[in-house]
Amino acid sequence: MTEAPGQGHNAAHTWHEARQRAFDVAAPIPPSPVPLKAALGRTLASDAVAIQDMPHYASSAMDGWAVNGTGPWILVEPGHRLAPHQASPIVTGGLIPPGGKAVLRTESGVITTDDDGLPILALGGAAKPGEPRNGQHIRKAAEEAAEGDVLLKAGTMLNPAHIALAALAGLDELEVLGKPLVRFLLTGAEVVTQGVPVPGKVRDTFGPQLGAVVELLGGIAGEQLKVGDNYDDWLAALQDTEPEPAEPYAAAEPPADVVISTGGTGRSGTDHFRRAVAELGGRLLIDGIAMRPGHPAVLAELPDGRFVLGLPGNPLAAMMALFTVGGPLLAALGHGKLEEVGEVPSGSMIDADPGRTRLMPFKLVYGLASPAQHAGPGMMRGLAGADGVMVVPPHGVQMGELVPAFPLPWGRPLPSPKSAEGKQRKAPARQQKKAPSGPVDWSALEA
Ligand SMILES: Nc1nc2c(c(=O)[nH]1)N[C@H]1C(S)=C(S)[C@@H](COP(=O)(O)OP(=O)(O)OC[C@H]3O[C@@H](n4cnc5c(N)ncnc54)[C@H](O)[C@@H]3O)O[C@H]1N2
Ligand code: MOO
């Protein structure tokens, strides 16, 4: 029997082709201004420039009195021009009045009376000799930046201090590189979002973490919509570019750049995904990948420019499809690059599986990558304890051979193969000989 594309061995794309295609089909989202609150972690698209001097007025650095000339000083109302030998009260950050030449700190002055019984300010308390010098305790205008100075260079990845600097400069928005907004469509009538599921029901593994993974892969996690197995609900959810906000009176999100659906990718039952994409006039870009798990993954583009990524329902399969297709797609939309695939030395001999790439979570043991136990398509224990994912080619892997691999979005980078080889040499010979040829149980190592 001939299998249709997407049915495993004859899937339209190899693993390498699929990730390259997911990167190639998307163009970077153009830069746009965003409010400061939304700018954290974004990349500045154009220089941020001081629109006026910073500070834009001379102010006091201390609580005390603005003074002109030497004391004693006649006190005048705050805000008035100070003539020589006049002073007026001022607080930290207060505007230096015209004629103000220095600030005398509260602890360096005393209010007393002159011969006529009128109140005057005189040096006293903690005053040091020569106090107040001209300009003392005055924050001069433009001492941080002059109008037109570049405060932040294009290309800066914005951190909280950058955002505070922009606010200090009086900016309300920053021009940042585009970043894809992702909305989620979690399908399956058997999926429950709380508590212990009864037989026939399963807990939703995606809702609590998929958004975070999308953010690690360079996207902005938007709303999650749960739909059952009804085709009309599917279609409506895909059609709806701006779903109702979750909370009353909250503003609706702007249209998403990517919709990620989970479940319903299989062709065996009712094929809602492909039917809905076709009905909306979209086109399939990737229809199945010759890999396991995750082979039914689908990528489509709708006429309005949104990408729809269909992840299989099996939890591990979905994560592998997300790393394979979602990562490159989000990188391309977000001005990133296609991550290079790394390499790790395999700690096991892995048999051939003609026609498909196997994605195997692995743990590094003495610098060697050992495939995880509990890595079936519906399991999560293997990935939960993994250091990365091996990309095992169809012809298999020899023990000690370098095998393509990638790190986890939330994990550490892979060690360079050189350092792994070093460790490999240092490992006791007996242990090398004993390295298993199948999945390793690391539970003892994790204690
Ligand atoms: N006759 C065939 N059956 C299946 C094939 C096939 O080629 N021929 N492929 C299998 C593979 S491989 C995968 S992967 C799945 C793909 O399934 P779907 O994407 O259509 O997803 P569902 O059928 O809706 O669910 C599959 C599985 O995943 C569970 N699931 C769904 N959503 C969640 C969730 N949010 N959290 C946790 N688990 C979830 C669901 O309960 C099912 O157990 O098809 C195979 N079958
Ligand atoms: O793609 Mo399915 O994941 O092989 O389980």
TrEMBL record:
Entry-linked Pfam families: MoCF_biosynth (PF00994), MoeA_C (PF03454), MoeA_N (PF03453)
Protein's UniProt keywords contain Metal-binding: yes
Known pathway: Cofactor biosynthesis; molybdopterin biosynthesis
Q: Where is the MoaB/Mog domain?
A: 183-332
Enumerate the CDD domains for this protein.
MoeA
Reactions catalysed: adenylyl-molybdopterin + molybdate = Mo-molybdopterin + AMP + H(+)
The UniProt keyword set, sorted, is: Magnesium, Metal-binding, Molybdenum, Molybdenum cofactor biosynthesis, Transferase
Task: Please indicate if the UniProt record lists Metal-binding as a keyword.
Answer: yes
Region feature (Disordered):
410-447
Query: What InterPro entries would the database entry show?
Result: MoaB/Mog_dom, MoeA-like, MoeA_C_domain_IV, MoeA_linker/N
Top-level lineage group: Bacteria
Cofactor needs: Mg(2+)
- Could you tell me the EC number(s) of this protein? 2.10.1.1
Protein family membership = Belongs to the MoeA family.
So what does this one do?
Catalyzes the insertion of molybdate into adenylated molybdopterin with the concomitant release of AMP.
This chain belongs to which protein, by name?
Answer: Molybdopterin molybdenumtransferase
Naturally occurring in which organism (per UniProt): Paenarthrobacter aromaticivorans
Q: What is the lineage of its organism?
A: Bacteria, Bacillati, Actinomycetota, Actinomycetes, Micrococcales
